[in-house]
Amino acid sequence: MGKSLELPTLVDSEGSPAPRSPLGSLGLLDGPGLLIAVKKEYFKVINYKELHFNDCGDRVAQLLHVELTSPLSQCQNNEILIVNTHLLFPHDSSLCLVRLHQVYKILQYVESYQNECQLKPLPIILCGDWNGSKRGHVYMFLRSQGFVSSYDTAHHYTDADAHKWISHRNHLGNTCAVDFIWLLNPDKCRKLLKSSWSEAVFGMFKYLLQRTSLTESAAFDFLKDENEDCIAYSSFSKALQKLNLIGHCYGLSDEETKDLWFQADIDGNGVIDYKEFLYRIWNQTGSDYRKR
């Protein structure tokens, strides 16, 4: 009872502050909501921000900038960025892209916040209900950005150990491991965020092609027009629409689609040949890194 807590505003599904109960805790009328409770003995709150995804799930994220009240070292930065979120549940495969977008928005927001505040590279903690397993695109996206699962680190698990733990039973009654606490230390060598995003989308692209039992050569044929040797932008767009990645309000935007095309068209000659298809889409061997 002697522990004091600082409670930032809880965001409800309409984007409004949720009401406090008489006991001082934060209640929620309906819809998804988030809460970060901070022990004042350990952390001083420097700033608090809210991110609204503005998508089909009314999902949100919280960003908390804190400083340790008892510095671990006088020689190092003792500030931390903490993000809490609850991603959309993938009721069908079309929502997987929405979830990937939500994570992309979080990482863009964190990057923008650090730049605007002119912060030195800080440790970043991402926590919450990610509604996706270690086999999913969100997991691989975050791993490509250098984030590690704190649970895996503590138990010496690898990315392949998806079967060794569960976090809870979902509303369908299935046991699953979807609640993560991700950590990124500032000494990590990070891939450019845009590169990781493109690779994640191409990975989803490949998964959807493989799900229809297409081999790499058949997938290449699926992407190009009949009697053509290479993939043109028009046939590339048609394939994305057939796979439900574009053509609806929560799909890839025109700008994102064109950006994917420019990355796949490595030599910039206006078409994607078989080697470019293998390199950028099927095998994904790109590697744009930056020091943090």
UniProtKB/TrEMBL annotation:
Keywords: Calcium. InterPro entries: CCR4/nocturin_mRNA_transcr, EF-hand-dom_pair, EF_Hand_1_Ca_BS, EF_hand_dom, Endo/exonu/phosph_ase_sf. GO terms for molecular function: 3'-5'-RNA exonuclease activity; calcium ion binding. Residues 252-287 form the EF-hand domain. This is EF-hand domain-containing protein. It comes from Pisum sativum (Garden pea).
